[in-house]
Amino acid sequence: MRAALLLAASALALSGCGLQPLYGGGVNGPVQSTLAAVQVAPIEGQSGWLVANALKERLDTGQGDAARYRLEVKLDDQIAGLGVRRDDAVTRERRTLRARYQLVDLSNGQVVLDATAGSDAGIDVVGSEYATIAAEKSALERLSGIVADQIVARVARFARSGGAAPAAQ
To answer: Is 96 helix (H, G, I), strand (E, B) or coil?
Structure first.
């Protein structure tokens, strides 16, 4: 009884805060229809292939709409050694994946959204070179998904705002 009362009070408080669901309207809503109309331009390199696939998975709604926008992405993928022992052997690495992306309106070629996204991951360097390479690749796969999520969220906010560029963060 007490939990139900608390839940009802929370729902009442949240209804007055002005928050609206980003994907309101479902498949036919403005966000979902805009995301379905975005084509992803090819991105260079292995990291580009991973990010492009992650973006396509997140943007494809199966509607088959004609593309209204093209997403152009340039990546910067870096690995830097952090932890160094007395014998100058690296014990820890940091992999950083940064993306600069532009959403281009295909009807007039105008850039309607220009932003960046990025994330980083720590990697332990162990005695086995194979294990270290596997950890670096695994980190790149995780980072590709994170960067793709950030890009799609920003494009969704753009669509939700009616095509106005969202405030920079």
So the answer is: strand
What amino acid occupies position 64? Answer: G
pTM as predicted: 0.78
Closest CA to 157 of 22, 35, 17, 34: 22
Per residue in 17-33, pLDDT (tens digit) is: 554 554 545 555 667 87
Residue whose pair of structure tokens reads 């992803």 in the numeric block: 40
Q: Which residues pair with 39 in a beta bridge?
A: 70
Whole-angstrom distance, CA of residue 149 vs CA of residue 25: 21
For residues 102 and 116, the answer to whether their CB atoms sit within 8 Å is no
Question: Among residues 64, 69, 91, 65, which one has the least CA distance to residue 80?
Answer: 91
pLDDT at position 106 over 60 = yes
HSE-up (13 A, CA, CB side) for residue 62: 1
Number of other CB atoms surrounding residue 110 within 10 Å: 9
**Which residues, other chains included, contact 90 with Cβ-Cβ below 8 Å and sequence gap of 6+?**
81, 82, 83, 84, 125
